[in-house]
Amino acid sequence: MIVLPSVTSGVPAGEVQYARSVAKRFSRMLSIIGFTADTLEDSSLSKARLKSLKLIVLPLNDVVSTQTTNLLKKFVADGGKLFVTYNLADTVAPLLGLQQTDWRKEESPGQFASIALNTPEIPDMPTSIRQASWNITVAAPTTPETKVIGYWHNIAGESTGLPALFLGKAGVFFSHIFLPDDILTKTRMLAALLGHLVPEFQRPLAKRSIEMMTSVGHTDGLKALATFVGESGVSGAVDALETGKHLMEKARAEYNSKTYTAAITTARASREAFSKAYFFSQSSLETEGRAVWNHSGLGAYPGDWDRSAKELAAAGVNMILPNMAWAGVAHYASKILPQSKTFTRYGDQLSQCVTAARKYGLEVHVWKITWNLEGAPKEFIEKIRKEGRTQVSATGNPLNWLCPSHPKNIQLELESILEIVANYDVDGIHLDYIRYPGSHACYCEECRKRFTLATRQQIDEWPASVLPKSSTHSEKYIEWRSQQITRLVRLLHKRLREANPDIKLSTAVFGAYPACVTSIGQDWIAWAKAGYVDFVCPMNYTEDTGYFTELLTNQLALMPKEVAIYPGIGATATNSLLTPDAVIEQIYHSRSLGASGWTIFDYSLDISETVLPALGMGVGKSKAQPSHVSSRLNQDLQD
Fold it and tell me: What CATH fold (topology level) applies to the domain 2-196?
């Protein structure tokens, strides 16, 4: 059971909501290894609910009530186990044989980059996990039974001497929350810890591992996988399939002999072999957009774009979409936007990226986040706000977003993007956040004036009369908001064509259309039909293959044929964490449905270590030309 903090226990609503998101990720990790967990607020915890439980998870519980503490004490006294992350409440710490001694924020980037584990007594534990944490809770054992089993290491692989993971008689404490990076290794660690804490968990853990062996990609079981591999005719795939079969039989024998931890290890190796067979069996097309988003703007290796570009090209990727600018900050030498901390530390990232990309034949489409002022210097935001240029919510609260209806904001976006095209040898501009933050914005006074002027409507109650669904002018306001966003896309299309006809304009968009028109003013199908964009990347981030194909089918039916669509695959998105075979499966379905390519989120060390090797075995084995056709890459392929 996962026990959440509650407002009734004195925890602020925002913290409760964040705890829910942390719990959701923990629950997802549990589901991967075959467990389901009920989630409830601590105020609902009772003796009756605890009776059949073996494990309680406290994902982010800074405050634990007296009632809950007493229940947890009884639970632990009766042999129950706790798994606590990040917040170590004073009343919970003694139950684990711990005390909090400090709280540390990283003093430099990469200070908390990985955890070295030392647990010879726990079978199938990894030796390390990657986790880029920004702060940690520092604790120390108060009893001999509680041991430190993992220490934080920095990005250079050096130990910080700060404990990361504790194991005691009553359970486990992890000094931060589980982040999505290196999620498969973390899930393996979680399974090993649970099997150690509660030995009776070992059997269901092994059973789940056995069940998952042949659940690979779009194939349903060994027979379907064998057929798919056989049709490919790839010898490497056949060999991997046979290896997987051998390991599968061994794992089943170990399970039947009740050596469950050995069965788990062997079953994982079997699935890895079957996955390789699946990867090798994929075809490699001559024409296909193969893109990756890179949110950090640093590639996978900060300070080394050459290494990133080289490995992307080796995996068959032909496009990089690096996040180089927001509405108020840039990772390059801009005279229009303030420079970022990334620029200060690592230098001009756009220049370095373009140089490396040219060397290895990659296209660069600069990922430009519009309107959103996240990461901008405080003084920059304050200046903009004083000029009445930031958005206002329906409840009157200021938002750190540029208002799309303000002429100066449109000019700022145009100038910052045209500066990129003028100063850097890029292939395109890729717009993101080309929308409102939600239906709750924008309702500033300037929007009121401009809407009234444009529509000649008499607005007596603002914003009540234009709010979605329930107001007099809501439909007209929805249309007007959409026009504000479309205006920037239209103007950019025009100005980019004037500056350089070869520059491509693309957008990252919400997958659920037309709902996004109403909610965020993003009418991207209209942009495509008007010829404003060369390709679109709908962010179809989901672990549900059926929903992914449903979204893409709808998108392809609406899109004009001359505009390429490269569906976004959420390999490491907030609401979507995919195994490598699940990524390849979504590529397989994208091809089957007729998409022009695909885009993977988010290129990082995770993707480098897990997804790129899978791409290189089959999907990206041969070079491909992007479907939107780039004159530069055409020439590269001819050379």
Answer: Rossmann fold (3.40.50)
Is 90 exceeded by the pLDDT of residue 532?
yes
180 φ/ψ angles, rounded to the nearest 5 degrees: -75, -15
Distance CA 40, CA 47 (A): 14
pLDDT tier at 8, thresholds 50, 70, 90: confident
372 has which bridge partners?
401
| Cis peptide, bond prior to residue 537, ω within 30 of zero | no
Residue 472 DSSP label: T
Q: How far, in Å, are 121, 194, 498 from residue 125 at the CA level?
A: 9, 11, 58
What are the residue ranges spanned by the domains of the chain?
A: 2-196, 205-280, 289-638
Scanning 33-140, the segments in alpha helix (DSSP H) are 47-50, 66-77
* Token pair listed for 101: 């001694």
Question: DSSP character for 478?
Answer: H
For residues 158 and 220, the answer to whether their CB atoms sit within 8 Å is: no
What is the b/e burial string over 544-562, where b = at least 16 CB atoms within 10 angstroms of the residue's CB? eeeebbebbeebbeebeee
Q: Quick check: helix, strand or coil at residue 196?
A: helix
pTM: 0.94
Cα dihedral 591, 517, 575, 293 in deg (nearest 10): 60
Q: Which residues contact 312 (CB under 8 A, 6 or more apart)?
A: 292, 320, 360, 362, 603, 612
Q: Quick: pLDDT tens for 384-399.
A: 999 999 999 999 999 9
Neighbours of 157 (CB within 10 A): 10
CATH of 289-638, one of 2.160.10.10, 3.20.20.80, 3.30.360.10, 1.25.40.20: 3.20.20.80
Q: Are 376 and 455 in contact (CB under 8 A)?
A: no
Asked if domains 2-196 and 289-638 share a fold, the reply is: no
